[in-house]
Amino acid sequence: MIGALVGTGKELRWEIGGVTAVRNVGKDQWRISAEKVVRDHPMEHLNKISSQIMGPSGLRTINAPNGTYDHENGTLTLRDADGIWQRPEHPFEWKTPEARWEQKNDVWNFPRGVTVSGDVYTLSCKNAVMDGQRKICVKDGCIRWWSE
After folding, report:
1. Which residues contact 86 (CB under 8 A, 6 or more apart)?
2. CA nearest 119: which of 72, 96, 86?
């Protein structure tokens, strides 16, 4: 009887309010909160997302009004996301219409572009991929540097 309930439970749709999770991913600690999570296997639909990622490269924040987490593919997709990256050198703010994070490879995709603005530069592009935390590949972009 319990086996049948567990098997059937995978298909159940549920909704939870006020969810906070803390996970270690590599050397980073993720703290992610959502005002509401609706599970519709294999997708989780998230509303009013707020997160902090703390690790060796500094503190990163991510905010988005909504997004999804796909359990089968291990991908997090955020819409109209923004945040900051507090680092010892050149902290910056960022904003994008869509961000996708692939858990398996720790890769961020910005298929609809991203704007990054810091103390000494601004970068805007139509498409970008950030592999890990140091390497970023930009398509159709422009970067502006300035100094005092």
Report:
1. 58, 59, 60
2. 86
pTM confidence score: 0.81
- The amino acid present at 33, given as its one-letter code, is S
68 closest CA partner among 112, 96, 101, 95: 101
User: Among 11-15, 45-49, 90-94, which stretch is predicted with the lowest mean pLDDT?
Assistant: 11-15
- Burial-class residue 27 by CB neighbours within 10 Å (0-12, 13-18, 19+): exposed
Could you give the C-alpha distances from 60 to 35, 49, 57, 86, 141, in angstroms and in order?
20, 14, 9, 6, 23
Whose CA is closest to 34, among 14, 50, 22, 52?
50
Closest CA to 83 of 92, 74, 70: 92
Per residue in 45-84, pLDDT tens?
A: 999 999 999 988 889 999 999 999 998 999 999 999 999 9
Task: Kindly report the backbone phi and psi dihedral angles of residue 79, in degrees, each rounded to the nearest multiple of 5, phi listed first.
Answer: -115, 140
